[in-house]
Design goal:
The longest helix has 21 residues. The protein is of the alpha+beta class and 288 residues long. Helix 4 runs antiparallel to helix 6, helix 4 packs across helix 7 and helix 9 crosses helix 10. The strands form 3 sheets. A 4-stranded mixed beta sheet has the order 2-1-3-4. It has a 3-stranded antiparallel beta sheet with strand order 7-8-9. A two-stranded antiparallel sheet has the order 5-6. A hairpin with a 2-residue loop joins strand 8 and strand 9. The two termini are 33 Å apart.
C-alpha cells in the first residue's frame, strides 16, 4: 500500500503544490488523484475522503484521511522521521515551523491579487500597497530565518518550510513582483528545484486553462531554468520500447536532438516535452 493524495489543477492549486512537495521532495511515494477546480470533480472525489473538503487531502496506507498541508506535514514527519521534512536541529526546526505556520495563515493580499498560475509570467501586475506590505513581511521573515540557521534554504537544508513557500516563489516569478536580490536568489532556488520543475512541467499539460486565473497583463518568458528543446511527434517509432517511467509499451513519441523517445501515454510524453531535464528517468534514457 502507498499514500493517496487528492490534488487540484497543478497550474493553479498552490495548496496542492505544497502537499505534493511534501512527498516528492522528500522521497516518499504517493499516488496522486487529480480533480479539476471550479467543477464537480473535486467535491465528487472528496466524497471518498471524509471529512475532507479541500485539496490537497492525503490518505495514509492504513486509511487515515488527513486534509490540510500543516497536518499532512506533521503526519508525514511522524511516520518518516528520517526524511528530513522538519530539520533535526531544534532551533532550525522551530524556525521552520514558525515560517510554515505564518505562510499557512497569512499573506491574504498577495494570494488574492496574484493567484498562482504556473503557465504564464507577467511583466507587471500593479501590486497594491497591501501586496507590497506582504512582500516586505516575506523579506523580513526570510532574512530572519536565514540569519538564525545559516543555510541555503530557510532552515538549513530544504524542509517543509520551503515547500510551504514554493507557491510564493512561483507568484513572485509569475507576476514579476519587486523583491530584493537575496529574496530573488531564494525564488530562483525554488524555480530550479527538481521537484518544483517536475510539478511545473506537469502543470503545462494536465488540463485546459482556467478562466478564473486569466489576466490581461503583458507577458514575458518564464524566468526559471530554460528547458531543452523537444517536440511531440506522431507515430510509435522510438529508440526505446518501453516508457521510462512505468515500463509500459510505447504509444506516444517525442523528438529531441534528432532522436526519438517513446512513452506510454500522451501525458508522460507531454510532461517530458515541457521540461526534459526535470525527469531523471528520461535523462538517463537519453544518455544511452
Amino acid at each position: 500500500m502507498t499514500y493517496d493524495l487528492v490534488i487540484g489543477d497543478r497550474a493553479y492549486s498552490s495548496w496542492s503544490l505544497r502537499g505534493w512537495l511534501l512527498f516528492d521532495a522528500f522521497g516518499i511515494p504517493v499516488k496522486t488523484h487529480l480533480a479539476r477546480l471550479y467543477s464537480d470533480e473535486l467535491p465528487n472525489r472528496l466524497r471518498d475522503y471524509p471529512p475532507a473538503k479541500t485539496a490537497p487531502t492525503m490518505r495514509t496506507p492504513d486509511g487515515v484521511v488527513v486534509p490540510e498541508t500543516i497536518a499532512i506535514a506533521e503526519e508525514l514527519a511522524s511516520r518518516h522521521p528520517q526524511a528530513g521534512i522538519w530539520p533535526q536541529d531544534p532551533k532550525a526546526r522551530a524556525v521552520a515551523r514558525v515560517l510554515a505556520a505564518e505562510m499557512h495563515a497569512g499573506f491574504g493580499a498577495l494570494r488574492s491579487h496574484c493567484p498562482m498560475n504556473l503557465r504564464v509570467s507577467y511583466t507587471d501586475c500593479a501590486p497594491s500597497a497591501a501586496v507590497l506590505a506582504d512582500l516586505a513581511r516575506l523579506e523580513t521573515i526570510w532574512a530572519w530565518a536565514k540569519a538564525q540557521t545559516g543555510g541555503a534554504w530557510l532552515a538549513g537544508d530544504y524542509s517543509a518550510a520551503d515547500a510551504f513557500f514554493a507557491p510564493v516563489a512561483a507568484r513572485i516569478a509569475g507576476y514579476n513582483l519587486p523583491v530584493s536580490a537575496p529574496a530573488m536568489d531564494y525564488v530562483q532556488a525554488h524555480l530550479a528545484h527538481p521537484s518544483f520543475r517536475r510539478w511545473r512541467a506537469m502543470a503545462q499539460v494536465d488540463g485546459a486553462d482556467q478562466d478564473f486565473y486569466r489576466r490581461d497583463w503583458p507577458q514575458r518568458p518564464w524566468p526559471g531554468p530554460q528547458p531543452l528543446a523537444a517536440r511531440a511527434v506522431s507515430g510509435t517509432q522510438s529508440e526505446n520500447a518501453a516508457c521510462p517511467y512505468c515500463g509500459q509499451p510505447v504509444t506516444h513519441v517525442l523528438e529531441i536532438n534528432d532522436r526519438r523517445f517513446g512513452f506510454c501515454t500522451a501525458f508522460c510524453r507531454d510532461k517530458t516535452v515541457a521540461d526534459p531535464g526535470a525527469w531523471p528517468e528520461f535523462m538517463a534514457l537519453m544518455r544511452f
